[in-house]
Amino acid sequence: MRTTGTLIRVGLAAGRSTPGDRLRWWGLFAAALAVAFVTLATVATTATYHGRETRADARGPVISDSKHGALLYREGADSVGNRPVSVIFLHPLTSRAPLPAGVSRWPEPGEVLLSPELLRTGQSEGIRTRYGSFAGTILTDGLVTPSERMAYVRVAEAPPKDDDRWMHVAAFGAGGGATGEMADQKPVTSPLQGLWSLAGLPALALTVVAARVGSRSRDRRSSLLQALGGTWRHRMIVNIGEAALPAAWGTLAAFIPYAVASLWDIRLGPTGYILDHRDAAAAWPTAAGAAVVSLLAVLGIVVGTHRVHRDGRSTRPASFSSPVPAWRLSACGVGAALVLTSQYAPHRAQLAVFTCGTVVMWAFLSSVVALVTRHLGSWLADNGKRKGHAGRLIGGRWTHAHPGVIVRLALAMVIGIGIVAQMQVWTSRLGVQSQAAVATHQRIKDTVIQLTTGAMTEEQTDRFRSSLPAGSLLLTRSFHDPGPPKEPWVTIEGACRDLRALHVACPGDTKTAPVTSAQVQEMRRWYGKVNFEVVPHITVKPDSTQSLLVVTSEPGHLAAVKEAAYTLPNPSVQVQTLGGNWLGSSKAPLANWIQLFGVIGILFILLAGAVSAAAEFVRIRHALAPLSVLTGRRRVFRSVSSWHLTVPLLIATVLTGAVTAWHSVFFIALVQEGSVSWTVLAAGVTTCAVVSLVVGSLAARAAAREADQWRPAAD
Question: CA-CA distance, 244 to 264, in Å (whole number)?
């Protein structure tokens, strides 16, 4: 215990006296904060999933097999902007009809309860009157998240007894996994995979960089301890004593955002998702344990990155014997192999294999860059020696002797370019149907609207027509599928005056109809073979083979058509524009989550690059200062910095750009979606090239300033 205490005090003292100690202290503080932040975000994500499932079950309907349920229940769908809305139609059969969580009483016939977020975001689209008269809001206990968009609609009249879409409900409190936002919820591994790929990997990279700040003095100390008979345990205790305080304070600082998320609901940036504070508050014990694991992981990285050679020469000054470990190169090869073989994996596992390979490849790609630059350093040193170029000779020898410096500096640029490229490719993913939906919307906007509804008589359709915007056309769409070998087709029926308005000829017309309207052309693109027929009256059959089509005279009437449809006695299940379901998927929240995680990861990478560059400035200004006396020229600072820093970093930038281009194109071929923005990639490569030049210039400037104050010392 006495030896342990002494070694801990040695570590604490070393943290206050080594070159760049203040920089390393803040670097470790930031690294521990970053790793703990991602770890606590993992805890919050897991807790949120558990809370969502609990609240969904509390409002889930218990369907009765018999016809004696106390409540008729039917689910529908809508959208506000491009965000989905869950619409629940209800009709209590008794005064004691059960109530789901979040509802204190059922509204009166023709009234509606809205979630707070739906009420806020739908004001501009007339959401207060779209489904009926507004009667109040749903409490948060009945919502899986405060940002959920949901409505309980009590229909104005009793539903038809022969409508099979209505279900009898005996109670609420089970099976809520298919209602509201839970209907399309991804498994918890999906957001965690994105979080750790885009933010966790940069946080770990920042930890490695911060742990190696001032590494030369630390390595010499470790070698001295070994020469004095110390074991790996003694070196571990000293290293932990040096890093414990900043790492502990950084871990504690990460609890500040978690504490805020435990007290108030927080909207997460571009996603629009509101994090429920109750979930984070309930997971405090788990968060505390995860923070301890995070702290131990940071300290483990600190210990693992300071190892000594066991060849009996560890006390000698470091020379040209610091090769890139072979296991790092092998790990990069394994990552590239996983990326290449992901296309042969089972379909559901392809993306997971590709992601794992990507993380491993990007994590160790900088080591491959270091190997290349190490050989380049040897060549530069030989070339400088032959031609008498002092800067090239010194810079080449430094590059050959210290490849880890290039690894740490290149790490930020390598991972940064990879994250930016992946964010761009993921956000550009549009399938064939989504691309067609976007094109359709650009050509005809929202002038063709589809309504999925139940049976409607002639009187009901006439009443619905009267509530539509002026100049609207009402048609029916019937789908026919006779089976192989015949192809399916669609029949669109309507009054002759409505068909003529679409430039479709009616029987008995003597003049040739002009070119069909743009709306009809889009219908043919989406429905395939279309036949038009004239009917004197519009009706809808109860066999679910028919739906209604509304064609408006001009765009901008979608909200009015929705209000007319959802306030029918037996409301529509879904109202959307032609191709509207694919149009919504083209702007799925996935891109926003990738943007959120990616921005966090880029911030960590920028911090890692800043810490690494600052540490190199500290080392170079001390090492280069005596050269002004030996050479008699200040130009040597710029020359050495260029050959030691700028040239290897430019090579790393070129290699990274090439690998990123291949990786992005391969990903697009794998998922068969998206596109590569060469402009974005070129901008990223150009930025890293400029950074390489700036790093070399600032290092030379720092050394020149130190040279003015340098005096010989017994160091």
Answer: 31
Note whether 142 and 55 are within 8 A (CB). Answer: yes
- Note whether 420 and 680 are within 8 A (CB): yes
Q: What is the 3-state secondary structure (H, E, C) of 461-516?
A: HHHHHHCCCCCCEEEEEEEECCCCCCCCEEEEEECHHHHHHCCCCCCCCCCCCCCC
Amino acid code (one letter) for 163: D
| Residue pair 143/102 in contact by the 8 Å Cβ criterion | yes
Task: Read off the pTM.
Answer: 0.82
Main-chain dihedrals φ then ψ at residue 481, nearest 5 degrees: -135, 95
At 312, list the tokens.
């009996």
> What's the rounded Cα separation, in Å, for the pair 613 and 605?
12
Can you say whether the dihedral through the CA atoms of 327, 333, 339, 343 is positive or negative?
Answer: negative
Question: At how many degrees (to 10) do helices 589-624 and 21-59 cross?
Answer: 170
- The two tokens of residue 128 are 């207060």
CA angle 189, 193, 197 (to 5 degrees): 170
CB atoms within 10 A of CB 281: 15
Single out the residue of 380, 323, 379, 373 nearest to residue 640, CA to CA. Answer: 380
pLDDT (tens digit per residue) in 301-331 = 888 877 665 554 444 444 434 566 788 888 8
Residue-wise pLDDT tens digits, 500-544? 899 888 877 766 656 778 999 999 999 988 999 999 888 888 777
Q: Counting every residue, how long is the chain?
A: 715
Beta bridge partners of 452: 574
Q: Are 59 and 217 in contact (CB under 8 A)?
A: no
The CA–CA distances, whole Å, from 310 to 102, 232, 307, 315 equal: 66, 11, 9, 10
Residue 559: CA atoms inside 13 Å, Cβ hemisphere, count?
Answer: 12
| Tally of CA atoms within 13 A in the half-sphere of 590 that contains its CB | 20
Task: Give Cα 128 to chain centroid, integer Å.
Answer: 33
Distance CA 206, CA 210 (A): 6
| Amino acid (1-letter code) at residue 303 | V
Q: Do 101 and 130 touch, CB atoms closer than 8 A?
A: no
Cβ atoms of 239 and 302 closer than 8 Å: yes
Rg from Cα positions in the chain = 33
Distance separating alpha carbons of residues 449 and 381, to the nearest angstrom: 72
